[in-house]
Amino acid sequence: MSLRILMVEDDNSVAEMMGMFFKKEGWQQDIAVNGVEAVDMFKENADKYDLITLDLNLPKKDGIQVAKEVRAISPTVPIIMLTARGSESDQVLGLGIGADEYVTKPFSPIALIARIKALHRRVMMEEDVQTQENNNQEYEIQTAHLKISKDRREVLFDDQPVVDLTPKEFDLLYTMAQKPKQVFSRDQLLELVWGYEYYGEERTVDAHIKKLRQKLEKVGAKVIQTVWGVGYKFDDSQVK
């Protein structure tokens, strides 16, 4: 697996360490040391990069603003946000502006490599599905109020589109909607949606669920329920 990574990192020691592990994998990287440089490099040739590792605390322009500007250019390029901050609010903020992963420093380089590989595999699988798409307008999932097309990454609630879902948010909804009323634990969702042994914390699921709910509720879809002490379930049978 050959990757071209845009590494946005102002800490030389961290950049050197990451670069060493990337080199062992046979990956190439370009390094931006501040937010302005990162946006300029990505804007110049967005198709060049398979993935971005993005530090949150950057000079000139912070990681949140960089992620927003990158997402305006490309809604799909995978972003792994790296930060020394560990609060839930920071994590929710990072995920909310489109980051696919959130890694708190200090982190294990091996764990980071595992996340990059899994994230890239998922992106490749999604692209393969879209390549094979035959424009069939059927929906794989149809419940009382919801229709979901996995091929088109399309979600309708009472025929209203649910927009701006990130890949992880869509996958969470699709996973739960396949089995309405089944309660999924956070560990189950990490395994089913992330697809590998996750080295982060379970609150990553909570952060994604929070943003997913907000986007669903914009069209009146209060369909993700919390089962206290257990996890989450999808149920639209009581929606009016």
UniProtKB/TrEMBL annotation:
It comes from the Bacteria. It holds the Pfam family Response_reg. Residues 4-120 form the Response regulatory domain. Residues 138-236 form the OmpR/PhoB-type domain. The modification 4-aspartylphosphate is found at D55. Coiled coil: none annotated. Keywords: Activator, DNA-binding, Phosphoprotein, Transcription, Transcription regulation, Two-component regulatory system. GO terms for cellular component: cytosol; protein-DNA complex. SUPFAM superfamilies: C-terminal effector domain of the bipartite response regulators (SSF46894), CheY-like (SSF52172). The keyword ATP-binding does not apply. This is DNA-binding response regulator. CDD domains: REC_OmpR, trans_reg_C. One of its GO terms (biological process) is regulation of DNA-templated transcription. SMART domains: REC, Trans_reg_C. InterPro entries: CheY-like_superfamily (IPR011006), OmpR/PhoB-type_DNA-bd (IPR001867), Sig_transdc_resp-reg_C-effctor (IPR016032), Sig_transdc_resp-reg_receiver (IPR001789), WalR-like (IPR039420), WH-like_DNA-bd_sf (IPR036388). It comes from Lactobacillus helveticus CIRM-BIA 953. The keyword Transcription regulation applies. One of its GO terms (molecular function) is phosphorelay response regulator activity. Residues 138-236 bind DNA.
